[in-house]
């Protein structure tokens, strides 16, 4: 059966602050006729993983796919950089659709903060004092007190980022679960976290918030001195990333589990 998928022809090129990324953007736009982001079918992001996250946040809800090419250090969310056959690569690319986490936080002054996270929502101690957190899942208290440097909830796409550094599990993209991972847990010392259904609603209450202040971070959006934080997946928002054929995000997540 012939492929009836319409061919992508309109690209927009965006670059991180690195000079070499800007130079590549100029060359690619001259070669492929890059237009505006609003008028494009695919946005080509030139940078690292942080820049990809920035672009995904910028185009949250637009439905426009983003194809990244690496000009950073790790480049887990990016494709290899090459100026040749770009339209062919994009039209043959495999798509990954991910859903962000929505964080709703209340600070000690009564302020309410709402933010979205593609990788994770993390709670972090602000001072030398350990944080003390109460953890509630779907309305039921599961841990009355966790003494720690912090805790995080990670998406499958974000499970190989901060979550992995905190010794959390790597999650396949289609597993429909979230990772709840402590950061340097002191009590209970042996608790390594939990895997939760993607429908789970997670609530953190900060105990002794005056003595042990805690910040909440949704990707790069930080709220200081929080009292409570609620986290849940927002499936009304779908983010689309494109990866070269044979190098899908799902394949990268799987391969990461066998890296040494």
What does this structure look like?
The protein has 260 residues and is an alpha+beta fold. The protein is 16% helix and 38% strand. The chain has 5 helices and 17 strands. The strands form 3 sheets. Strands 6-5-16-13-8-9 form a 6-stranded antiparallel sheet, with no helix packed on it. The longest helix has 14 residues, at 19-32. The model has no long low-confidence stretch (mean pLDDT 92).
Salient structural properties:
260 residues, alpha+beta, six-stranded antiparallel beta sheet, 5 helices
Nutshell version of this structure?
This protein is 16% helix and 38% strand.
Per-chain topology:
Layout: E1 11-15, H1 19-32, E2 42-47, H2 49-58, E3 66-70, H3 86-91, E4 94-98, E5 101-107, E6 112-117, E7 120-125, E8 131-137, E9 140-148, E10 150-154, H4 162-165, E11 177-183, E12 194-197, E13 202-207, E14 214-218, E15 221-223, E16 226-233, E17 239-243, H5 249-256
Parallel strand pairs: 1-2, 2-3, 3-17
Antiparallel strand pairs: 4-17, 5-6, 5-16, 7-10, 7-14, 8-9, 8-13, 10-11, 11-12, 13-16, 14-15
């Amino acid at each position: 059966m012939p492929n009836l998928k319409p061919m992508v022809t309109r690209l927009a090129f965006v670059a991180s602050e690195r000079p070499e990324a800007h130079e590549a953007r100029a060359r690619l736009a001259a070669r492929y006729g890059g237009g505006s982001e609003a008028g494009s079918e695919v946005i080509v992001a030139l940078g690292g993983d942080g820049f990809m996250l920035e672009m995904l946040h910028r185009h949250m809800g637009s439905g426009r796919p983003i194809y990244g090419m690496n000009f950073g250090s790790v480049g887990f969310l990016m494709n290899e950089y090459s100026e040749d056959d770009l339209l062919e690569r994009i039209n043959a690319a495999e798509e990954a659709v991910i859903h962000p986490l929505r964080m709703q936080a209340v600070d000690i002054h009564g302020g309410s903060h709402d933010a979205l996270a593609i990788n994770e929502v993390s709670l972090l101690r602000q001072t030398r004092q350990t944080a003390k957190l109460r953890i509630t899942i779907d309305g039921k208290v599961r841990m009355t007190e966790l003494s720690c440097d912090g805790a995080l909830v990670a998406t499958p796409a974000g499970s190989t980022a901060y979550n992995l550094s905190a010794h959390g599990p790597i999650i396949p993209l289609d597993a429909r679960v979230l990772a709840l991972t402590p950061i340097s847990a002191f009590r209970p010392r042996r608790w390594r976290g939990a895997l939760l259904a993607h429908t789970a609603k997670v609530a953190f209450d900060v105990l002794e918030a005056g003595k042990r202040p805690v910040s909440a971070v949704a990707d790069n959006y930080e709220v200081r001195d929080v009292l409570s934080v609620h986290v849940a997946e927002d499936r009304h928002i779908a983010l689309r990333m494109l990866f070269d054929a044979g190098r899908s995000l799902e394949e990268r997540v799987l391969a990461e589990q066998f890296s040494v």
